[in-house]
Amino acid sequence: MDMLALSAVELRQRIGAKEISPVELLEASIRRIIALNPATNAITGADVAEARRVARLAEQAVLRGDDLGLLHGLPTGVKDLHETGALLTTYGSPLHAEDVPEYDCAMVANVRAEGAVILCKTNVPEFGAGANSRNPVWGATGNPFNPALNPGGSSGGSAVALATDMLPVCTGSDTGGSLRIPAAMCGIVGFRPSPGVVPMDKRPHGWTPISVLGPMGRTVADTRLLFAAQSGMDDREPLGFPLDRGAILAARPADLGTLRVAWTEDFGQAPVGQEIRSAMRAKMAAMSHLFARCDRIAVEMGEPDRCFDVVRAQGFVARYQQAYEQDPGSLGPNIRANFEIGAKMTLADAAWANGEQTRMFRRFQTLFRDYDLILSPTVPVTPFPWTQLYLEELEGVKLRNYYHWLALTYYVTLVTNPAISLPCGTDPMGMPFGMQVIGRFRGDLAVLDAAQSMEAAWSRIPGLAPPRPDLAKLATPRPELAAFATHRSGHWHARSMAEQAG
After folding, report:
1. Model pTM?
2. CATH topology of domain 256-458
3. Which residues pair with 217 in a beta bridge?
4. Which residues does 94 contact at the CB level (< 8 Å), separation at least 6?
5. Are 171 and 111 within 8 A, CB to CB?
6. Taking a C-beta distance cutoff of 8 angstroms, is the pair 375, 447 a contact?
7. pLDDT tens digits, residue range 410-441?
8. CATH number, span 3-252+473-501
9. Rounded mean pLDDT of the chain?
């Protein structure tokens, strides 16, 4: 039996039933990482010795009959933007390439308290800027369906680790789409929850809701399991929004035949390639019979691109001003671009953006008077080579900046509605197609329930079932992925995991 192919939910159940040992499961994950990470470069910092110590304690707790946490004994990867006490956290930046935090961030503390065995960190763009998981510390991450292509970002390492069964649990975060985009490109599930459900104690602008922490998983049920473990009120999170963990875990299958569904290719203005538009129409035709209504709608978003420019740039100015003023060259091109955009803005720009985001929010919520869910593609193109930092033009039209190609997801970020990306067959190039499913304001539980029912229904419809990468083809290392790095950390890292594992 390949235990790593089991869902996180089943693994946790089997651990609790004493059918699988946390030690045995951890060793299987380590072997899989050693075998496949050279082809994908998804895993960065790691501490095998500490993970083994924690796994042994987890095994002893099971044998004693102790109360067990939601993630008890599950090997876990944490996105390398989130502080892990005593484990290297680089943010993908040479400025932090040797940093080992003393404490966990609030979300990691929640996950650890639920019994997760934190083994390693997962790769990101530098400081999470962009949707191509490459940086000068660790190099680039390759797509599990074709390592020469982009896996998305910024939670790209987590998405790849899940898609290849390296780990059953991996965390992520989302500003412009960083949970949803890599999930779509790698054929897994990524859920952007309502702001404040998962505490984010490190956000510089605590009252600004565009950045959230959240879960990913190979299935909706796995995603719910991690989400429940991540969530919780924290007095450092000013947007704190409580959801009952039991309610998150308890799937209540939605009756799809009662749901009123709307869909759009582009929210009226997002750049989307013709192949993705055609694929979206075909998939909606294949699933429309599932719902009470399934209507293509026009959406009026206002000026979301300009609004996102301002809201996003304010955060970069708050966080990186000192580093930029000391040495702009110490920051990557995406970080510099964001800072420079923000540094030129005025108070009038900020006031306009705040007002426009409010207007967008109110207009968008009116759609839910007639519909229960809104669907769109998650990404506008098939994955492109990771050597291309970002998409510069689409259909012959030059895009506004390095993140304009992410508009399908950052429009939803601005209105703050919960949204999940579900794998929905493949695109015309044979790569995973992600369907973005958007729910009502603070309707997290309803979105998860509907997503779980859609996941089950799509698995029975030709062309809509989730794809799986060919793991056997990933046995060949791709040294160019790691060679892209210009800085190698001196601390624990996955490139020496074989030595760590003994």
Report:
1. 0.97
2. Amidase signature (AS) enzymes (3.90.1300)
3. 189
4. 136, 137, 330, 486, 487
5. yes
6. no
7. 999 999 999 999 999 999 999 999 999 999 99
8. 3.90.1300.10
9. 95
